Amino acid sequence: MATSHISTAEELSSAPKPAPTYTENANPSLTEKGALSNDILSSSPEHLEHVHRRLLLKTDLAIMPLTALLYWLASLDRGNLGNARLQGLPADILGGDPKGNLFALCSSLFYISYILCQVPANLVVKRFDPAVVIGLSVVLWGVASASQAGARNFGGELVCRLFIGVFEAGFGPAIPLYYSYFYTRAEHGKRTALFIGSAAFAGAFGGLIAYGVQNLPSPPISHWRILFLIEGLPTILIGLLTIWALPNRPADSRLYTEEERAVVLQRLGRESKVESDKTVRWKQVRGALGDWRVWVMGMIYQSLNLALGSISSFLPTIINTLTPSPARAQLLTVPPYAAAFATMLVCAFISDHFAVRGPVVVVLLLVSGFGFMMLLIDHTHFSVRYGGTFLACMGTYTGVPLMMSWCAANYGSETKRAVALALMIGFGQCFSVVASFIWPTTDSPFYRKGFILCMTWSFFGAALALLLSIHFRMTNLARDRREGRPEKDVSPQTETLADKAPGFRYMW
User: Fold this and answer.
1) Which one of 16, 23, 354, 481 has the largest count of C-beta atoms within 10 Å of its C-beta?
2) How far apart are CA 65 and CA 29, in angstroms?
3) DSSP secondary-structure letter at 489?
């Protein structure tokens, strides 16, 4: 198992006093401020454990509810097009769209702009205050989302979807990077799962909202226009709150006392160097672009996103083949999303506890693949096919946060981590664009092409995840033989060497 460098209170207190190697290497400017005071770090194990628990609770309360709420809103704004499809949007502004091609274009354009803007957006988050960048992104995508209610034709809807993708690019890939500023690698997985889990919850809640809107008696405007307004306008207000309420980096945030800041920076410094500036190191940008493992992670993420893009936009349509009532189809989307949320939390805790990612991702992709295999059965078998939607949702949604955490754990420096995350997510989400075109209306009610592609790619992604996990494990063993076991009180010099730094170990 990879060395995770998780810092406990006992380890902190048992480190040499003073610890010149760490404090000189970790961050001189922070040391001058007293953030890594030896007096604080030489406290009793009991006291440090109390500080550790207090700062984690404080960090979680300041960050997790707000970021989960933001992703919940993003998922509503991203996925409500699928609900609007059943509420008359194609008939009103797409000329009926008998083949589903115009709807597929509207759905895919979001992903195209989202993919293209991710790397520059993550570098902006690295360079400037993350709370401001993330908050502004939320406000602007909320404006674009609510504007869909005013679309009068195909072109208007396309423009709205384009700008939702542009501005969400400054949020979605940024949050796993942002979490890495506050949490160790063994704390990252469950937090990312809670964050992404709000998407599964949004899918369930979105179905309930759409069901309620669908049953409004004689509304003044179309049901789908009301849906866009209800799910878009609150995003703008929450985005403004984010700019003020979301903490910046631990060293700059007023969230912590000096004692808490010393402990959190000491814990983070055991895994990689805590960077004192916001400089973008272009050599590491090139290093991420040329790292084959980033692209393999992107291919694994592709397999998840082919399924994720299919589920988020077409699950109501798929379930509608099992029941003649569109309103009942909206309601039946709720249980699979709820099951996905529960599975996500359980698997994330298991993954963090054992400090592994790859083997868990392998199992989840296999579950997703078998789910789509069940959906290939004749559409008259309601129980089997509906059960397949559960497995597809559980495997797909749970694999996404673990892939984000796996990528965030393995590239050392902030710059390479920022680019690697954006590349993996962007490259992977190319298949979300593909997902928009594999469910044409002409394939109803069997949708064999969509189910076969999702199943095949899930199994392919599982094979890649297994091979990459083995590679990281073997690399760690080779470094142990060459360097010896990493010293727990020495910070790897990842600021300049990224994941190549002596003492750095990969999470496999």
Assistant:
1) 23
2) 31
3) T
Indicate the Cα dihedral angle 367, 340, 176, 247, nearest 10°.
-170
326 in a structural domain: yes
Asked whether the beta carbons of 503 and 3 are under 8 A apart, the reply is: no
Q: How many CB atoms lie within 10 A of CB 385?
A: 21
Domain count, the chain: 1
Which residues, at least 6 apart from 142, have a Cβ–Cβ distance to it below 8 Å? 73, 77, 232, 233, 234, 235, 236, 238, 239
Within 10 A of 296 (CB to CB), how many other CB atoms are there? 16
Show the 3-state SS of 332-348: HCHHHHHHHHHHHHHHH
Q: What are the backbone angles phi and psi of residue 392, rounded to the nearest 5°?
A: -60, -45
Residue 244: give its domain's CATH number.
Answer: 1.20.1250.20
Residue with tokens 């949020």: 171
Domain of 198?
Answer: 38-486+493-500
Closest CA to 167 of 46, 74, 53: 74
| SS3 call for 43 | coil
What pLDDT is stored for residue 464 in this prediction?
A: 97
Chain segment 200-216, per-residue pLDDT in tens? 666 667 667 777 887 77
Closest CA to 181 of 271, 49, 311: 271
| Residues whose CB falls within 8 Å of the CB of residue 273, separated by 6 or more in sequence, listed in order | 25, 26, 27, 413, 491, 492, 493, 494, 495, 501
Other Cβ atoms less than 10 A from the Cβ of 93: the count is 21
- With vertex at residue 114, the alpha carbon angle to CA 111 and CA 119, rounded to the nearest 5 degrees, is 140
Alpha carbon of residue 136 to chain centroid: 19
For residue 223, is it within any domain? Answer: yes
- Report yes or no on 155 lying in a domain: yes
Q: Alpha-carbon distance 263 to 265, whole Å?
A: 6
pTM: 0.79
92 CB contacts (<8 Å, ≥6 apart)?
Answer: 222, 224
Give the CA distances from residue 432 to residues 193, 264, 481, in Å, rounded to whole numbers and listed in that order: 20, 37, 42
Name the 3-class secondary structure at 173: coil
- The residue type of 386 is Y
Can you give 238-305 as a three-state secondary structure string?
HHHHHHHHCCCCCCCCCCCCHHHHHHHHHHHHCCCCCCCCCCCCHHHHHHHHCCHHHHHHHHHHHHHH
What the block records as the tokens of 356 is 């592994």
| Weakest-pLDDT range from 51-55, 198-202, 255-259 | 198-202
* Residue 250: inside a domain: yes
Residue 314 pLDDT level (bands cut at 50, 70, 90): confident
